[in-house]
Amino acid sequence: MLTKINNPRLMLTSVAASLLLLGCTATPVATDGVKSLAQLETVDSNTVNIKPDPSLPPLPIEKTGKIEVLPAKYPESWMFVDEVSFQSQFGGKMIILDVAEPKQSKLIKGTADKNLVGNFANSKTRPEFYILESFHERGSRGPRIDLLVIYDKVTLSPIKEIVLTHTRLTALPRRDSMTLSADEKFLYIANFSPAASFTVFDLDSREVVDTIGTPGCVLPFPTGERSITSICSNGSLLTTVLDNNGKKASQHRVAPFFDTDKTPIFERPSYIDGIGYFPSFAGEMHEIDLSNEVAQYKGKWSLISEEERTAGWRPGGMTLSDSDEQGLLYIIMNEAGFDGSQTHGGNQIWVFDVKSRTRIAKFDAPNWAVSVAVTRGKKPLVVVTNGEMNLDIIDPITGKFIRTLSDFGNVTPIVLFKAY
Amino acid sequence: MKFLDQLFEKKARSLAQTSGRRGLLKGLGAALVGASSIPLLPVARASEGPSMPKEFGDEGSCDYWRYCAVDGFLCACCGGSTNSCPPGTEMSPITWIGTCTNPVDGRNYVISYNDCCGKTQCNSCLCQRDEGDRPLYRSDKSNDVNWCLGASSSVYHCSTAIVVGIAFEK
């Protein structure tokens, strides 16, 4: 056999392929030949004996160099997992995962690197997504470069890399560190140096338009058609209105509505029909209308009853809430909460109809809940980052635990994004 | 009172951010030299002031009193200590603060959690306490931020817990 291979590279390929085959578990997969099926003798459910049959025709020769691509529109059950890799931050990445896929080997659809606690944003209408990451020239040493990388959703290859100034927010990942305008013409990039600002990036021209200061106010929550609202250190909001070119037209203050020391709120909202839902540490839900040119505070209501408050129930988690396409809000609740437990997670998921401001369901997190996310579609799945940093899949209709996803390159998958 | 508290915290924070560690050591050294040059007087030992404040506990343990608002790898487990960085790293000059109670003297202290930077993550003694931690809009009290943004390398290694002042209330 070996004497027939004249090209040494081909020989190595062949040997490697043989070794790989030896390492794989033999499974009784149906083939075209009835005869080959007859050779399989099942010993037990895990072991199959194969009798070699040299009279069979050889396998067709395959081409090397084949690279998979993804569909232009991702299925509803796919999600982007932000793997910040807290213990090895050179290994951060986005993992595209089908959380409804029953076969372990088919869970991962692809990955994109995201170095040094990078930031991520996803597009609903453009065939691309965005990663902002940093590199030092020699690992942890040398000059630093910050790059906005525009990725092709189909090939998962970079389309363009844009060098930015060294002011990007480097913090534990969140859904709002980079956001898009309603028409997805502009990308808004949070800066924190620690001076707060945001950068406007034109996704058509692929150029930075401007960086706009928001003193004392952080994060770019998209508002109306061309506005950005930031949350401020005195409990107020600041809305920046842009002109059609992405330049600052005006800025507007929304009066303080909470005390950042005594009644703090989470800066990680969920969105339903243009309203941003910002839970407080103690269990109130603040509504901010982000559908018009300037943000408007709409008041607050309680997630918990007086009895539950007395018992110690509080919201909490790294990414503590998400919404589905039916307008329901899912939030992690901790029955033993306190000031200090706000990012620790909780033991239940509560589901709210925000229109009626009522809780319609609650279910246990099977293995604790640090973060929660919900897939797209009419029959969504709830995905919970559990205490062991694996993902628990739950049917929100029945509240039943379906399965745990692990061994998909996960270390600290603390934020999940819907995929489009 | 609250105003004074906040002012004090800001001053302590400002001091922590603007004073170099070498400057602090130099000052402390001068004070010690000055003290040693004062002649010992024949006074009763009993009339001496109280002894220096003490601390109790394992600085390598997450429940150590100084770590009340920490979120990260403890430098005390990484070749450093509560107030020093491991060899070859760089201390970020800007950071977040917490207010922790020392159980030995019952006082509240302002703790500055300066990050040590420039080497890959220490990966020992991960500790998340978060008492008094606030979201990003209160960046002075936010431990979600990679505070190595103030160092020459943005690579986070571990977190210290340095006493930078006395707080009047928690």
TrEMBL record, chain A:
GO terms for cellular component: periplasmic space. Keywords: Disulfide bond, Electron transport, Oxidoreductase, Periplasm, Signal, Transport. Its EC number is 1.4.9.1. Disulfide bonds join 217-232. Residues 1-30 form the signal peptide. It holds the Pfam family Me-amine-dh_H. The keyword Methyltransferase does not apply. It is found in: Periplasm. The keyword Cell membrane does not apply. GO terms for molecular function: aliphatic amine dehydrogenase activity; methylamine dehydrogenase (amicyanin) activity. SUPFAM superfamilies: YVTN repeat-like/Quinoprotein amine dehydrogenase (SSF50969). Its main location: periplasm. It is an enzyme of class 1 (oxidoreductase). Belongs to the aromatic amine dehydrogenase heavy chain family. This is Methylamine dehydrogenase heavy chain. The lineage of its organism: Bacteria, Pseudomonadati, Pseudomonadota, Gammaproteobacteria, Alteromonadales. The gene is mauB.
TrEMBL record, chain B:
It holds the Pfam family Me-amine-dh_L. It comes from the Bacteria. Residues 57-165 form the Methylamine/Aralkylamine dehydrogenase light chain C-terminal domain. It is an enzyme of class 1 (oxidoreductase). PROSITE patterns: TAT. Its EC number is 1.4.9.1. GO terms for cellular component: periplasmic space. Keywords: Oxidoreductase. One of its GO terms (biological process) is amine metabolic process. One of its GO terms (molecular function) is methylamine dehydrogenase (amicyanin) activity. This is Methylamine dehydrogenase light chain. The gene is mauA.
